[in-house]
Specification:
globular; TIM Barrel; two-stranded parallel sheet; 328 residues; 10 helices; alpha/beta
Length: 328
């Protein structure tokens, strides 16, 4: 195992399990899947933000009707939460619920996961936030791409709704961390107006380098996130790194350097989204799966990042944010 552990800020582990992947074993199809628990250990990933990913309008196990039916959205997220709870019962991972769960050597023991709700429709009402907190959720993104009852998404423009503002207040009261990835530009502004707490973008890249579309962060958004002590997780989907050609390791480095330039060393982190609706072959040549993450660290060193900056990117910045956000 590499000596320096990694924290990956965005992995759709339960979604992958629902596609038939046995997370506990090496993948039988390396062109389709790269993420398994053994692969993460080999690559040094010892803590991950693991999602409850639910998709509006999908008939798959992770889906719910396009009208945003709250009960069915909640049921879809519960199915994924049960996957994490079952893996925890089997000793395959540990769900991080409080600050003390981050203590000790990350390299020791099973993978630790912080549960991230990606898409807020499973939250049936502001009062329902406490139920999800009790189940173990600690980070919430109010929408996936297609929007939710609470916020416009990057593929479904709209503001933070009045109900969404109430949910933000409930999340703040519970001590949840906000994830701004997938918010529309208007919903991002609404979130920043509705809370003074730290905000992260768990898996978003730079609009100044790739397309200037709501899926990517503007420099102003990066600065706003950094000003709260938040961070931006590098997404390794090739189309989010380079346009009109296959992405290379150098493109991933370019995005890290841009966030560092705009938001400072504390704003850089990893949020790979490995296998999150795409395959290893869709990632940059040289860092297509968890086992290849050390190559990204080497490339960042060659680009001039000091050892302390690279440690912050690998794990330190996520640890800082999580320690501040998690309940004592």
């Amino acid at each position: 195992m590499p000596s320096a552990p990694w924290i990956d800020g965005h992995l759709d582990l339960a979604y992958l399990a629902q596609q038939g992947l046995d997370l506990s074993r090496p993948t039988p199809d390396r062109n389709r899947f790269g993420v398994t628990l053994p692969a993460l250990r080999t690559g040094g990933v010892r803590l991950a933000l693991a999602t409850l990913f639910t998709e509006r309008g999908s008939s798959d196990l992770w889906g719910y009707p396009a009208d945003g039916d709250a009960a069915l959205a909640s049921a879809a997220a519960i199915r994924q939460m049960e996957i994490y709870l079952d893996l925890e019962r089997r000793g395959e991972l540990v769900i991080v619920r409080r600050r003390a769960d981050l203590a000790g050597d990350l390299a020791e023991g099973p993978l630790r996961v912080v549960v991230l709700m990606e898409g807020g429709d499973p939250i049936r009402s502001p009062e329902d936030v406490s139920r999800w907190f009790e189940l173990g959720v600690r980070v919430v993104g109010l929408t996936w791409a297609m929007g939710s009852r609470w916020a416009g998404g990057n593929a479904a423009d709209g503001p933070l709704s009045a109900g969404g503002r109430e949910v933000v207040r409930a999340l703040d009261a519970a001590g949840m961390l906000h994830d701004a990835s997938h918010l529309s530009r208007a919903a991002f502004d609404g979130l920043m107006e509705s809370t003074d707490r730290p905000v992260v973008a768990s898996h978003s890249n730079c609009a100044a380098i790739t397309a200037d579309v709501p899926r990517h962060l503007t420099d102003a958004q990066i600065r706003a996130i950094a000003s709260r002590g938040g961070l931006c997780g590098l997404n390794l989907f090739g189309k989010f790194l380079a346009q009109d050609r296959p992405a290379l390791l150098a493109d991933a480095v370019r995005h890290v350097l841009r966030v560092r330039e705009v938001g400072g060393n504390g704003a850089i982190a990893l949020g790979s989204d490995f296998d999150g609706g795409f395959t290893p072959l869709d990632c940059p040549v040289g860092v297509q799966r968890p086992e290849e993450l050390p190559a990204l660290d080497t490339a960042l060193a060659q680009a001039g990042l000091a050892a302390a900056e690279r440690e912050g990117f690998r794990a330190g910045n996520w640890l800082r944010v999580l320690r501040a956000a998690l309940p004592a």
